[in-house]
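Example 3.2
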Amino acid sequence: MHNLAKIGSGVRWIAGAAAVALLLSAGPANAGTREAEAFVKQRGADAIKVLSTPGLTDQQYMREFNDFVDKSFDVPAMAQFALGVYWRQANEAQRAEYLKLYRDYFVGTYAARFRTFSGENFEVMGARAINETESLVQSRIVRPGNQAPINVDWHVRENSSPKVVDMIIEGLRLGVTLRDEFSGVIQSGGLEVLFRALRERNAKFALGA
């Protein structure tokens, strides 16, 4: 039986690195990329504010973290990309269930790791255009001591408002990694196998495992 302990092995370190921070061919900066850069800077400041708030209960922390996710990430777009060709094959009920399972998985994965960081600094290095509505914002996490910084690029898409649709950590793209891992599970037994694995992983998050 597949489970997300195996599925998540390829992205476990990404989750830890990307928790605080908030490569594609890209062109020069324009008004859209400047907006994307400002957006990532603001979301990074908001993340640090959550991290530095003393005495938050688990319930308060999760409420703050869910608000941070909703304001920062286009989770439905990320979920659809991760499912790849299987999104088109899923019926309406399966899509609805998958979107909820993916969101719970995303929040559960990052919420636990987000809270373990302390003493890191988040620096935005610049931004480049991908196309008229998408930009790549480059940043790094500066860690205490002599630890090497972690390079994090944010793929930001502008629709009605800017949202992050993917992350690239030290050259490894989260969306592609998840899509490959999800596809491998689905090929072993269909969508229900993936759904079952996501349910099991999310249940462990709920128990703090």
